[in-house]
Fold this sequence. Notes:
The complex is a heterodimer.
Chain A: E1 8-12, E2 15-19, E3 22-24, H1 29-38, E4 46-50, E5 54-57, H2 59-74, E6 78-82, H3 88-95, E7 103-105, H4 108-116
Parallel strand pairs in A: 2-4, 3-5, 4-6, 6-7
Antiparallel strand pairs in A: 1-2
Helix pairs in contact in A: 1-2
Chain B: H1 2-23, H2 26-41, E1 45-51, E2 57-64, H3 67-71, E3 75-77, H4 81-89, E4 93-95, H5 106-110, E5 115-123, E6 126-135, H6 143-179, E7 189-196, E8 206-212, E9 218-225, H7 229-248, H8 253-267, E10 273-281, E11 286-292, E12 298-300, E13 307-308, E14 328-331, E15 337-341, H9 343-346, H10 353-365, H11 371-382, E16 392-399, E17 406-411, H12 416-430, H13 435-455, E18 463-470, E19 475-482, H14 491-504, E20 507-513, E21 516-524
Helix pairs in contact in B: 1-2, 1-6, 2-6, 6-7, 7-8, 10-11, 12-13, 13-14
Amino acid sequence: MSFPPEPRVDYRDAVGVVTLGGELDVLQANALRNQLLAAVRNEDLGLVLDLTDATYIDSVGVSLLFELAERLAERQLRLAVVLPEEGLVHRVLTIVSLSSVAAVEGSVDDALTAIGR
Amino acid sequence: MRSRIVADRLSDLQRITDAALAYLPLEALLEELLERVVTILGVDTAAILLLEDDDSTLAARAAKGLEEEVERGVRIPVGRGFAGRIAATRQPVHILNLDDFEVVNPILRERGLRSMLGVPLLVEGAVLGVLHVGTLTERAFDPDDTELLQRAADRAALAIFSRLTERERGLADSLQRSLIPRLPELPGISLVGRYLPAAAARLGGDWYDAFPLPDGRLGMAIGDVVGHGFHAAAVMGQLRSGLRAYALDGMPPNDVLERLNRLLRQLEPGRTATLVYLVLDAHGGYLTVAAAGHPPPLLHPPDGEPSFVELPGSVPLGAARHSRYELRELELAPGTALILYTDGLVERPGESLDTGLERLGATVRSADDDLQRLCGHIIGALLPEGSRDDDAALLVVRALPLSDELVAEFPAEVESIPVMRKLLARWLDEAGATRAEIEDLVLASAEAAANAIEHAYGLAPGVVELQASADAVGAVTVAVSDSGNWRPPRGTHRGRGLLLMEGLTDEVEVIRRDNGTTVQLSRRLGAQAA
């Protein structure tokens, strides 16, 4: 583990896929913000954020996701978040209705499809 | 008659040095001494050069008529030139005509000096520096002059020596104190460190450190920089800074050691150091550790035999260019004491290290649970009074048993949150909560704590109190209290924080007291969250 967690960025055609594990909390969120925003290229259609390996997210981490969705929307880009079926991160993002601002999918492939739709 | 004059001159000199010895700072003392030497010997210049810590360079420290020598920071290699030769041979050197002599220091010629006489500053046979005088016109210094100058040099040497050792002792004390860290206070964890200086009160190279990591685990290190004195202590300080920097980035222990090896080789080629660095999840009972040529940590489970952590053979930091260190991961039984130490604690002359390790194991076996007493017991048994020629360090940690009702205090800063989460997770686990229940209650409590930290105190320091209890029907209540001026949550973060607290527990109650606010979170275990 590193502090903050190091996001891994891949590109699938016109979509950036950011994989983020570990804890997205009040101590890490600020350092992550710029890294997440920098992953978006001008010509991209959207961003996939894979949180399959994330173990913890607090309200500051949640706000970072909402902010990311908002910043992408301003540029007509879409955000899709990949979540495991269950677990704390899934419960948290359900409580705060992340699905109101982003596509919430079970796999990276589904998320890529959601952005292409 | 002549010897009478010499005696008078000497007593003049003695008076000034004796008086100055007691009251003047070293630099002023040397100035006074030189002035007196110039007058008594009737010379044009006088200067004192002192040997640097490297034992191979003389540096000008005080001068009369040759002030540039000090101002320009003149440095002379021992063995070369006029002063260098005096230091190397420990004998007076007399030069009648400077033109016939290889001079290192250009200022001597620039100043137009013609004749010179110099003597070594000696204490107990060791060279501290050089005192020399010079004249602009040719002068054949006689044996009385040499004797007088040597007597002055002896006086100066004694004064310098006593000042240096006094200053060194003061510096050593404050340096050592600054290198002994204040250990963090972590609720539910007992952490005790001891540093034992060598009997000779010289600076040693042993050190330890312990600090919470950003994920709430505890980073712990103990090490031994080879060598003694200021330099070893300074290297120790650099290693400690380097270790914390790498550790706070979240690097695993083996990577931290590999980077420290690189760092040490660049900072101090040829210097070696042993080190154990480990990351302890004290509440979870999980340990990751790597060692660089350091004896293994000792584990003492509450109902078992002490055993040393099995570590692969490893080389000290600084010993090889590309050292690889292996990571070991192990689980600890709840309540296991972890004992880190340096070789000064276990090694005795003429005895194998194994014998010392066995003695440590036997000592720990017969000790009780309290870590302060454990440390006292270990030190009393392993370091009999007065027999210490090496320094020693000891660092022990143990997760304390938690009571049915948990009460803990944390500094009101966000860095406390991960530490609090680890503690509460252990308490909930011991209370029988499932993994999901633990996760939910811990996150809800972390939100309450974050709110208190952000809104109750502003920029003033404060304390957040955590309380947890379970009732007879299996409902858990966690209370997070501050004693600040609570403000309603502001901004979307905190709005979401309240939403999360409500979503992850059965009931959230905000209780405003006269002297602060308590957020009370309840959840019945074994049922779905509301």
